[in-house]
Amino acid sequence: MFLLDAPYVSEFLKKTVRELGQSVLDTPEARALAGDAGFDFIDTVDFSARLGAGEKVLANSENALEYVIRCGCQPDLARQIDICKDKALFRETVADMHPDYHFMRVAFDDLDGLDISPMSCPFVVKPARGFFSLGVHVVNDHNEWAEVVAAIHGEREIMNAEYPEEVVNSGEFIVEQGIDGEEYAIDVYYDDDGEAVITNIMHHHFISEDDISDRLYYTSTNIMKTWLLPFSEYVSEVGRACEFNKFATHIEVRVTTDGEIVPIEANPLRFAGWCVADITHYAWGFNPYECYFEGLRPDWDAILEGQEDVATVMVIGDFVPGTDRENVKSIDYEGFCSLFSKLLELRKIDYLSYPVFAFAFARTNEADLKVLKSALAVDFSRFVEME
Fold it and tell me: How far apart are CA 295 and CA 283, in angstroms?
């Protein structure tokens, strides 16, 4: 079964739902996003009964997870969801894996008076329940704390207005140690026995040390060959600590300079958000949603054969912070697409509702990634015409 909700349902996911014969929980949001997709909609009674009987469920968005928790028919699934949704709880659950990692759970009202002296700089502060880098701040010096807290106060109303409390809850924050190293995003599901199966690995590229944006993710043959085994071992250990089973998650990690894998967060009952998980199909030719529901394991040796030097990228067309999106006159989508030598798909986004104007998927050679990274180092204001 699928839970479909805002912000986005791709055409590929719609096609997948139909081809797999999966039912969709009937909600106003799912109906609006489905259009004429012809889904098999089921009501909450049927959904709860089938979930209670052990049927698998997958979401495209954390907005819809309240239905799983509210029905009360799968307490263990609700437990797994809560571990991921609450970033502080996730840190607490995997703490034995990383005994030297420092973090604090802090109520919003306590941020102003918080004693941050135990935290070594740089450190990070973010909502305990958050998404899409919303409300995330890097503190490079203790003297910046008052300014950061003031910024969080200003952002709180915006965060709560654009996403429901189940997705972004700015009432509680986690203050945690900064992690140097390269960042990766791992789509993985855990089978009935809790065995981890990775369906994709993406590198999260940052344009500077202070960058916290989600502008560029990419996967490549080199990434898969280098990290499939160590990440498989690591997410298996995470799964044992969290007791994950019959569960899909999108786990973000950083690899330090000495090779330690440190988790950032785990996102529940879904792969990469905004249907970015579709990049797996573009990159490797198989369907990650099908893998989860059918219990399929990708044959990576066969998949990667003959794919040397291939990279598949996902780029988010974001706005310069503070842009008044109500006064945007037009977007130069053609100019945005010119960034890519082989565009696979452009997804135009309702930028009045969300702070992005497009998602782009493209194919390139690993050798050409340097050129693309350089182009993405400049903000996208050149593609935005204001009134």
Answer: 20
End-to-end CA distance of the chain: 44
Nearest to 184 by CA among 210, 206, 211: 206
What pLDDT, on a 0 to 100 scale, did the predictor assign at position 164? 53
Domain ranges across the chain: 2-73, 98-177, 182-386
45, 52, 42, 50: which is closest to 74 by C-alpha?
52
The answer, yes or no, to whether the previous bond of 122 is cis (omega within 30 of 0) is: yes
The whole-angstrom separation of Cα 342 and Cα 101 is 42
Alpha-helical segments (H) within 94-252:
145-162, 221-242
Q: Which residue has the tokens 């969080």?
A: 152
Radius of gyration of the chain (CA): 20
Per the confidence metrics, is the pTM higher than 0.85? yes
Helix (H, G, I), strand (E, B) or coil at 359: strand
Q: Which residue has the tokens 């988010």?
A: 316
Confidence category of residue 156, pLDDT binned at 50, 70, 90: confident
**pLDDT by residue (tens digit) across 307-356?**
888 999 999 999 998 999 999 999 999 999 999 999 999 999 999 999 99
Q: Are 384 and 319 in contact (CB under 8 A)?
A: yes
Region label for 47, one of left (φ > 0), alpha (ψ between -120 and 50) or beta (otherwise) = alpha
Query: Which one-letter DSSP state was computed for residue 120?
Result: P
182-386 CATH fold: D-amino Acid Aminotransferase; Chain A, domain 1 (3.30.470)
CA distance 194 to 241: 11
3-state secondary structure at position 182: strand
Q: Are strands 123-129 and 40-42 parallel, antiparallel or unpaired?
A: unpaired
Q: Distance (Å, rounded) from C-alpha 358 to C-alpha 363? A: 17
Burial code of 276-305, b = ≥16 C-beta within 10 A, e = fewer? Answer: bbbbbbbbbeebbbbbbbeeeebeeeeebe
Superfamily designation of domain 98-177: ATP-grasp fold, A domain (3.30.1490.20)
C-alpha span between 95 and 121 (Å, rounded): 20
